[in-house]
Amino acid sequence: MSETAFGVALAARVDDMLAACTKCGACFTACPITDAAGVGGADPQAVVTGVLDIVRFGDGPEASRKWATSCIMSGECIKACDYGVNPRFLLSIARLAMTTAKNEPPARRRTGVETFRRMNQDVTVLSRMQLGDAALERLGQRPSNKPAQPERDGVPDVVFYTGCNVLKTPHIALLCLDIMDALDVSYQVMGGPSHCCGVMQLRAGDAEASGRFAGNTIDKLAQSKSGEVVSWCPSCFVQFTEVMLPTFARAGHEKPFDMTPFMRFVRRHLDRLRPLLRHRVDSRVTLHKHPGIAGVVEAATDILCAVPGVELVDLHQPVVGLQSFNLQMLPAYKRELQLKELEAARDAGIDTLATVYHSDQRELCAHERDWPFRIVNILEIVGESMGLRQEDHYKHLKITQDADAIMAECGDLIAQHGLDPDMARNVVIRGMIADQPLPLVGGAR
Ligand code: SF4
Ligand code: SF4
């Protein structure tokens, strides 16, 4: 699709939503972060009216601007709207409109390019510091001539789309593949920076580049036999299912595939999974939850409950946001939520805190050093029961909080992959040690 066609289709979708919105304010009332965003007492109808102004003109009242920039993508607003509008999408368009109004096109393009370049560097370095060539090839990060796994007629049942950032904690993505192997699902892995969803360009205000990146990736993803793409990353899922695919459809393109979050995919195959959960995992587990994608918390709960020996403990903590990363605009709120959850987990005497998404595991895992329970990804528990194991090297390295020790431990892989040691060290400090919203007890050692 040409850049112009994408822009026209996106504008048409936005116009439809502007026309459908009655400004009832129900979405604002349902939003869980209005207090944390400092707009809790505002008039819902006035705030929404202001958001529509921002979408149309690039600016609006302060409360509307604050709400739009603070959105953590919980999706409660989507459930609250009775008029078929997606307020989460409208707020992302409001952010796009504000960025567009503030910056000239070259500046927006530059920001998008720089953000992408840094993400590419972080993902490339951190994945290579943990994995050899065979594992990288398995994750689609090295050229491979092998057919889809397991080998069948060359066309995979599904495409497994990793997105980019899970490659920083690659044991999670490898466990996804191990589990699909055990379920006898054939798949082709795609992802990493060469299969960009375009979200960074959109955040930078470069909608055309975002559409171009996503369009290329959509063409690549449209390869599965079943027309199903199983996606790991919740940001990619929202970007494709709420922004890109509906816009491409609006431009007259046929829907190329359905996208399913990995947890819901595994939940669908739970009857086939159950007999494979052979080993007891005697553990009191609490689940770190985010509700941004419908059905994922419920699927993760069902999967955990199917593991023999697991006792699931509900800590009754607030459940908000798409994943931990998306709370970055409200850092104090995020720190408070994370601390309260760790305290509640300690007080409840659980022995395992299980994350679902990769950014949750990245941000929480090093706290294992200071609290009386382990912090693992849910798939590690499932894998344990199935007799599958992938080492969480990221947690092991991050817990040291020591860039020199990390560089020494990964020296062989840094040399093997020809990484520049100075650049790798910078990534370790910036992308691993400093990726710690709630400081560790006593700070870094
Ligand atoms: S987006 Fe929906 S819920 Fe929000 S104000 Fe408009 S009509 Fe009401
Ligand atoms: S997506 Fe969530 S945080 Fe964002 S506006 Fe809707 S309810 Fe509020």
In short, what is this structure?
This protein has 445 residues and is of the alpha/beta class. The chain is built from 22 helices and 8 strands.
Report on this model:
The protein has 445 residues and is α/β, with parallel strands linked by helices. It has 3 domains: 100 residues, no CATH class; 164 residues, no CATH class; 127 residues, Rossmann fold (3-Layer(aba) Sandwich). The chain has 22 helices and 8 strands. Helix 3 packs across helix 6, helix 13 packs across helix 15 and helix 20 packs across helix 22. The chain starts with a helix and ends in a 12-residue tail after the last helix. One iron/sulfur cluster binds next to helix 5 and helix 6.
Low-confidence stretches: none
Number of E-state strands: 8
**Largest beta sheet: strand ordering:** 2-1-3-4
Provide the number of structural domains. 3
Oligomer classification:
single chain
Bound molecules: iron/sulfur cluster
Helix content: 40-55%
Our measurement of the CA-to-CA distance between the termini, rounded to an integer number of angstroms, reads: 51 Å
Number of helices: 22
* String of helices and strands: HHHHHHHHEHEHHEHEHHEHEHEHEHHHHH
Inertia-based shape? globular
**Category by helix and strand content:** alpha/beta
- Average pLDDT works out at 93
Proportion of residues in extended strands: 5-15%
Major β-sheet annotation: 4 strands, parallel
Q: What is the CA-based Rg, rounded?
A: 22 Å
